[in-house]
Specification:
alpha/beta; 6 strands
């Protein structure tokens, strides 16, 4: 028996282990059921936002969850019709219709496959922890905020039902964890509203549910360069937003479960999933972090089985039991999602004791990410903004560590340069030398420094030029191999 095979057999989150254990199988199946209940209204709502028939979002969610269960690189992560991807495509649907959306979804999936094969997932290492914390906190705020529309201009009975649902989600696990608390809350509130004849908004009010199985969608668009020109911007936007949100969600689940995911497989797996979702659903998919948190943290899902069952239950519930699902009060789902937002938010990051210990730049990055996420309602834009802020603050901080120390030795002045020399730190370097008063022989010792870019090389060339203009000689010593190679290649070629 190989080590990998032995590890698989003893891995409680493997499909084989789940299928062999009735207890684990029960947990995974129920987790999938709870997640499906949370997926249905969200997918319906996102379809309405996009301006398409709710069936597209629901069928895409079924295809997305089932396909990613086989193809994805992160177990228990749920992919479905997502709001972030839908928002990118709203202008396309408004101006050109659903057929062009299908083309864009399929092409964005192919682009994601290419990016995955090229290893774009490795760029995740450049996302700082403070950006991840901002991503998670911004997500929690968006989840909570998205539920507020179900709490305004509604019958008064909605409010006690939401409070009751939250109480069930919080207190029921103290009684037993055999059945997920969110599922209990949904069933209990549905029974109360139906039996009591309480008139409150239901899932059925969000849009009509499909009555048939999904089928192959063939877009009726001309196969011309003009069609490609129309969809190209949306293809790139949907592909990048979907990839970024899925990879970030995978990292969050990695932290929650203390396991590691295959980000490269997740990237190309999402691409194949989007091709299938476009052909059989019509709407773009990516990781749904809210539903993933419900699956992993709320219901205890850990394997691909829970993701697969979430997709299956979406189809069974909306096609086979659509009349029953339509009667679920939105108050029950609001209660579940409110608790998801509370569990998602990193409360430790905003404690006064944490903020006092944390470097101010880290807090600025985290807050910037949250603000942009909430302001744009787009997680991907917020993360990009957070990374840019982190880069600027990091460059500014590192630049301050560069020092120049003059030492006189027998008619030769030596300047010892220490630190990292790049565009941010080298700008002031040219002013650190006494060109007029220095002797004829000047040495710059780079043994404690490293030259990283053309800006630093150009600055050292400028220093040399100022000495030579005064008839003095400058000698550079101590450069490491990388610095010497860079200077040999660029020095004297960068202009005055």
């Amino acid at each position: 028996m190989t080590l990998d095979r032995a590890r698989t057999q003893h891995d409680p989150a493997s499909v084989r282990a789940v299928l062999r254990s009735p207890r684990l199988l029960r947990v995974e199946v129920l987790a999938g059921l709870v997640t499906a209940f949370a997926l249905i209204p969200e997918a319906t709502a996102f379809s309405i936002v996009l301006g398409v028939d709710p069936r597209l979002g629901l069928f895409s969610s079924f295809v997305g969850a089932v396909a990613i269960a086989f193809l994805g690189g992160r177990r228990a992560m749920v992919s479905a019709a997502a709001g972030s991807v839908a928002l990118v495509a709203v202008p396309l649907v408004r101006d050109h219709g659903t057929d062009y959306l299908i083309v864009a979804v399929v092409l964005s999936g192919l682009l994601q496959v290419v990016l995955g094969v090229l290893g774009v997932a490795r760029l995740m290492r450049f996302i700082p922890r403070s950006v991840m914390v901002g991503f998670v906190n911004g997500l929690a705020i968006l989840i909570f905020w998205s539920q507020t529309r179900h709490l305004v201009h509604v019958p008064w009975a909605v409010y006690p039902l939401v409070v009751a649902g939250i109480a069930v989600v919080v207190l029921f696990p103290r009684v037993t964890r055999v059945v997920p608390a969110p599922l209990v809350a949904i069933v209990l509130l549905t029974v109360v509203t139906v039996a009591g004849g309480i008139d409150v908004p239901t899932v059925g009010d969000e849009g009509s549910l499909p009555q048939s199985l999904p089928s192959l969608l063939v877009p009726h668009v001309p196969a011309t360069w003009e069609t490609l020109r129309i969809v190209a911007p949306y293809v790139a936007g949907m592909a990048l937003v979907g990839l970024l949100e899925s990879l970030l969600t995978a990292k969050v689940v990695d932290d929650v479960t203390d396991t590691r995911s295959d980000k490269t497989r997740e990237a190309w797996g999402l691409g194949v999933t989007n091709v299938l979702a476009g052909l059989f659903g019509g709407q773009g998919v990516c990781a749904m972090i809210g539903q993933t948190v419900i699956n992993v943290r709320g219901a205890g899902g850990r394997s691909r089985v829970s993701t697969f069952m979430a997709g299956v239950f979406v189809l069974v519930l909306v096609v086979g039991l659509g009349d029953v699902v339509a009667q679920i009060p939105m108050a029950a789902l609001v209660a579940v999602m409110v608790m998801v937002s509370v569990l998602t938010f990193d409360w430790r990051s905003v404690r006064p004791s944490t903020l006092r210990r944390m470097p101010r730049s880290e807090t600025v990055v985290m807050v910037s990410t949250v603000v942009v996420v909430v302001a744009t309602n787009n997680l991907a834009v917020g993360v990009i903004a957070g990374v840019l802020v982190a880069m600027v603050l990091f460059a500014r901080r590192v630049a301050h560590f560069t020092t120049v120390t003059p030492v006189d030795d027998g008619g030769v002045r030596t300047y010892a340069v220490t630190g990292e020399l790049f565009f941010a730190s080298s700008n002031d370097l040219v002013h650190q030398f006494d060109y007029a008063a220095d002797p004829d022989d000047v040495v710059v010792d780079l043994s404690g420094a490293h030259v990283w870019d053309a800006s630093a090389v150009a600055t050292l060339d400028a220093v040399r030029g100022k000495y030579e203009a005064r008839g003095k000689r400058l000698t550079l010593v101590g450069a490491n191999a990388d610095t010497a190679a860079r200077m040999a290649r660029l020095s004297g070629t960068l202009g005055d």
